[in-house]
Write a structure and sequence with these properties.
This protein is α+β, with helices and mostly antiparallel strands and about 325 residues long. It contains ten helices and 17 strands. Strands 1, 2, 3, 4, 5, 6, 7, 9, 10, 14 and 17 form an eleven-stranded mixed sheet that branches. The longest helix is centred in the last third of the chain and has 20 residues.
């Protein structure tokens, strides 16, 4: 990522790490995150999957008890909950990428292949100041989605294979979406009736409206906005193939983004977690509000394997169009 200069840090005395053993198919257990953290003097809370907890409340209690660093070993949704508490408390935040996708960790340059490497931040770390996104009062580190994107997040298959499911069925979701009527306002721009809306904490790369790839920065102070409208998968593919902008609105803005809906509570995907948010939903960016403690040495630049982006969605949409044509002419 392109970032502000890493800052030197002082040693922490009472670090606190929340470990989600269910994230990433048990990745925290496979890499012995809890044991390695305890060996470094970290107080560890191992979540019990059978007893759901309010993680923000858990984190605030840790701060009240004297924690001087908060961390999470889990997925992006869990990271966001505790990152908000770290930011409001002014404490450094430790990201241990023990989830499935770990998009936030990727953009921080962390080693997603070995999540335990993130613990090196406690012994040889530096600090980055990064932005946080807010949807109403809810924090997001990656994005919040509405319409067809949110419906996709709530599909059971999405939990098992986020990238594959998005690439496979996003065009169909766009085509047959029957959700609430949405209106997006930001600055002087109004987008009426989009089928899918994605608001991100810093913009994704230009060829990635599905939010599958990486962000060039996490500290630009800008929200990324994508609003898409489509009647059929084939039309979506044709517009993008021909370079047409009709049906696809993209911008980066420092202004709040307000999503209106014709229902009091709109389904949304918040960092990949299915939620319902009261409308209208005001999304905003809080620049450089999160102090992230990362290892001094980390993989950094581009990940080893680039996930399929919008080009793959276009190919799938084209295939859907051909299949539909075959059904009608057969």
């Amino acid at each position: 990522m392109t970032e502000n200069a890493p800052r030197p840090v002082a040693a922490v005395r009472r670090p606190y790490l929340i470990v989600n053993p269910r994230s990433g198919g048990g990745k925290a257990s496979r890499f012995r995150i809890a044991e390695k953290a305890r060996a470094l003097g970290v107080q560890v809370l191992l979540l019990d999957p059978s007893r759901p907890q309010d993680l923000a409340m858990v984190a605030r209690r840790a701060v009240d008890d004297g924690a001087d660093l908060l961390g999470v070993a889990g997925g992006d949704g869990t990271q966001a909950l505790v990152a908000g508490v770290a930011a409001e408390s002014g404490l450094p935040f430790l990201v241990v990428p023990a989830g499935t996708r770990n998009h936030f960790a990727m953009d921080l340059g962390l080693d997603r292949a070995d999540p335990s490497a993130a613990l090196e931040a406690l012994t040889d770390g530096v600090e980055l100041r990064v932005d946080l996104g807010f949807a109403g009062e809810r924090v997001f580190v990656n994005n919040v989605s509405f319409g067809a994107y949110a419906a996709l997040v709530q599909d059971p298959a999405y939990r098992e294979d986020k990238i594959g499911t998005t690439v496979r069925i996003l065009p169909e979701f766009l085509a047959r979406h029957q959700g609430p009527h949405l209106v997006v306002h930001t600055g002087l721009l109004t987008v009426e009736g989009p089928d899918a809306v994605l608001v991100s904490n810093n913009p994704y790369q230009a060829d990635d409206p599905a939010g599958l790839d990486r962000r060039a920065q996490l500290d630009s102070g800008l929200l990324g906005v994508l609003a898409a409208r489509a009647e059929t998968p084939g039309e979506t593919a044709a517009r993008l193939r021909n370079g047409q902008t009709h049906g696809l609105t993209r911008l980066a803005t420092p202004d709040d983004v307000v999503v209106h809906a014709d229902i009091p509570g709109v389904p949304a995907g918040l960092d990949g977690e299915a939620v319902t948010l009261p409308t209208p939903v005001r999304c905003r960016i809080s620049p450089r509000t999160l102090r992230v403690r990362v290892p001094r040495h980390r993989p950094g630049a581009q990940p080893a394997g680039r996930p399929p982006g919008w080009a793959a969605v276009r190919r799938m949409a084209s295939a859907a169009r051909r299949a539909a044509h075959g059904r009608h002419t057969g």
